[in-house]
Amino acid sequence: MPVQRREFLSSWMAAAVPAQALAPRSDPSAWRADFPITRERVYFNSASEHPISVHSARAMKEYVDYLTTDLTRAEWVETPKRTADFRDARLREIRTMFARLINAKPSEIAFIKSTQSGENLVVNGMDIRASGGNVVTNDLHYESCLHSYKMRQKDGLDVRIVKNRDWTIDIRDLERVVDRKTKLIATTLVSNVNGLLQDVKAMSDLAHAHGAYLFADIIQGAGAIPIDVKALGIDFASCSTYKWLMGLRGFAYLYVREDLQGRVVKPTEFSGGVRFNYAPWSSSPDTGSPDFGVTPRTGAAQYEVGNVSNVASYCQYESLQYIERLGIENIRAHVRPLTERLRKQLPALGYRCITPQGNESPIVTFQVKDPKATAERLRKANIELTLRFGNQMRIAVSVFNNAEDVDRLLQALA
Ligand SMILES: Cc1ncc(COP(=O)(O)O)c(C=O)c1O
User: Fold this and answer.
1) d(CA 116, ligand 1 centre) in Å
2) Cis preceding linkage at 285, omega within 30
């Protein structure tokens, strides 16, 4: 191998520093510099898409450089083996880090493409319609997922959608519709509408008391708030990495409780390498063995189909390490006073808050009286957030935001 190329590869692979070797970053004022977007604008839109840190950007750039100038898949070159080992080691560590983040086992985590595909894998794998069961959900679940349930309803599935009361879900409303035929309660952990942290423990208790299971869409929580799937009684969960996990679209996780894998949720899509044991496929077929062989995947990996995105997984590896180094409790301690200040001061400026008081999430949503004028003020002040559903203004606060960002927002809206 030419020296230049060898040096390049070893620098790319040297990035495999184990998480524990990195210093913890407990000083929030230093976090801001990790996110160059803070030099460009005031960004309060991480609930839509989280900016990438310099660390994740570096990992992606190194990989893109490798793809640009160094890619080879030739079997007689040592590189493919080394890159495959590197990729596999990354995926193992990612599985472990994400499992740790939500208090699951690595064998309970599958790599999938999106949050919604995770929910679909669970619902399809449970085959609820065939068993005559019903699904209970609520209107603060993600809108596309509600659409998916509506489509299933047309197909004959019994779906019960509980409506919110003044932007919270009353567990008594769920109790009224759950019955012995309920197979699944599906909900967001944190609502993408108003950031409501739903009472998932009460929902899972309700589900389990009726022999049903609990699915949680955790995309607006993972990376931003503490999540303990065991303590919350969550049986299945999914999330993409492009929000609070500081990753890319197209790379996501599915959590399936160990004892429910393959039994309650059957895989409905299949993958895996096939071995043909006959000529001309095999130069030396084993006459005593079947023509066709495949090693089945075990654990949650049985729900995985196809290759995962290398660039997204290298990005995610850095981001998970970064989140671990910051610590979820430190992240919450940094974000909480910022959202609390917005909660206190924006109503006095005429913006009604539709996020409950004391809510433990990084999202606060307000109603605006004049959405067009508000959009114009935000544009002039170079502030990015989500304005939608006619009159809602969603503010999402992350690790790189600070008190000056909040000052600028309050000034712009005053
Ligand atoms: C609560 C919630 N669920 C699901 C999604 C969509 O996620 P994905 O693209 O991973 O399916 C979003 C995206 O905004 C969301 O906010």
Assistant:
1) 7
2) no
Q: Which residues line ligand 1 (CB under 6 A)?
A: 114-116, 142, 188, 192, 217, 219-220, 240, 252
pLDDT tens track for 68-103: 998 888 888 888 888 889 999 999 999 999 999 999
The whole model's pTM is what?
A: 0.94
Q: How far apart are CA 300 and CA 314, in angstroms?
A: 21
Regarding the domain delimited by 98-323, which CATH topology (the fold level of the hierarchy) does it fall under?
Answer: Aspartate Aminotransferase; domain 2 (3.40.640)
304: which 2 tokens?
Answer: 């995985």
Domain chopping of the chain, boundaries: 98-323, 328-413
Cβ atoms 360, 393 nearer than 8 A: no
The one-letter code for the residue type at 52 is I
CA atoms of 337 and 130, how far apart (whole Å): 49
Tell me the backbone φ, ψ of residue 263, rounded to 5 degrees. Answer: -105, -60
In the chain, which residues have pLDDT < 50? 1-3, 8, 14-21
Tokens standing for 324?
């671990």
Residue 324, φ and ψ in degrees, nearest 5: -65, -40
Residue 252, helix vs strand vs coil: strand
One-letter amino acid of 8? F
Number of residues assigned to the chain: 414
Q: Which two tokens stand for residue 70?
A: 């160094």
- Please give the distance, rounded to the nearest whole angstrom, from the Cα atom of residue 194 to the centre of ligand 1: 14
What's the 3-state SS for 111-165?
Answer: EECCHHHHHHHHHHHHCCCCCCCEEEEECCCCHHHHHHHHHHHHCCCEEEEECCE
Query: How far, in Å, CA of 366 to CA of 334, rounded?
Result: 21
The span from the CA of 5 to the CA of 365, in Å, is 51
Which CATH number applies to 328-413? Answer: 3.90.1150.10
Judge contact between 338 and 406, C-beta under 8 A.
yes
- C-alpha span between 298 and 312 (Å, rounded): 23
Which of the listed residues 239, 240, 365 should we mutate to test ligand 1's pocket, taking the one with most ligand atoms within 8 A of CB?
240
